[in-house]
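Lecture 7 notes: from sequence to structure.
We start with the chain below.
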Amino acid sequence: MTRNELVRWSLPRQDLRRVAQKKVVNMLLDSFEAKLTTEKWAKLIKSSHDTALRDIQDLIAKGILKQEEGGGRSTAYCLVHTGKQPQV
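Predicted C-alpha cells for the same chain:
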C-alpha cells in the first residue's frame, strides 16, 4: 500500500494524534520490509522503549495495529487492515 491509499483506508485524522505514529504508519503503508518491534519503533522515532510501547498499544487499542504471533522480546506488529506479514 502507498500513502495515497491511506485515504481509501479512511483513517480518521484524530486516530493518529502523534506525529511519530503517523510517521511509522506511513512507513508500514509504504512497504516497510522488516518486522516492526518496539525496539525498531523507538529507533525510528528516536524515543524511549516505553514511549514506543505506549504508541503501539494506543494503535492496537484503536484497531490500527495488531500483534503478530509469538511474544517476548521478539514481539512484532503489523497493520490490521492488510494483515500483511512483514518480511525479515
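Points to note: The domain at 3-79 is CATH 1.10.10.10 (Arc Repressor Mutant, subunit A). The chain has one domain: 3-79.
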